[in-house]
Amino acid sequence: MKLSIVVPCYNEEKNIPLILERFASVIKRDDVEVILVNNGSTDGSGVVLNELLPRYPFAKNVKVEVNQGYGFGVLSGLKNAKGEYIGWTHADMQTDPSDVIKALEIIENCHESKIFVKGDRKNRPPFDQFFTTGMSFFETILMGTSLWDINAQPNVFNRSLFESWQNPPYDFALDLFALYSAQKQGYKIKRFDVIFPERLHGSSHWNTGFEAKWKFIKRTIEFSFKLKKELKNDI
User: Fold this and answer.
1) Which of 42, 114, 152, 235 could link 119 by a cystine bridge, Cβ 3.0 to 4.6 Å?
2) Model confidence at 114, in pLDDT bands (50, 70, 90)?
3) Structural domain tally of the chain?
């Protein structure tokens, strides 16, 4: 298996059929697997997955009984991945599954294993872009390495990076942890433009207004200081 891509799904019953159909339209090879993680969903996501997955030979399901965070769902999928390269993207259709194939093509054209490919979001609302820019500057200054658009998708990299991780976070800080660990281990970071449209179905589980953003900022800052203290000399 060349690539395993994890898609954490928390209450995404309406988006799951769309993302499976989109993956089916862009995967033109038999060495790519898609791991959809039912991350403790309380809607009909599990029923939809059980009904639809037999129709898509490239896809499989991992079930998390109780939601412990976005990062935990991703990590649960990565532990079941068989690909030489692994990574994740979102289930909300704001990042096109075709971007995963673009990331794989970038890797194959580079002909080196220590490469970390990540999207760079475009077409975002001004306030969200302002928020991302501010957090990017903060993280870059604090951590002493370039950390830009940290939560952009997809993330794709050699599985050896994942195997080196110790105590990765269970929440959205996983994106920061992954990018920072790649930087510190000398991975070549390759970014490419991804279009970021409005969500088709459902609503964000964290980006619900200024108060939610402020909570996200506080959690990220707390984790960043912890990461700098505990891992800067160890990763």
Assistant:
1) 152
2) very high
3) 1
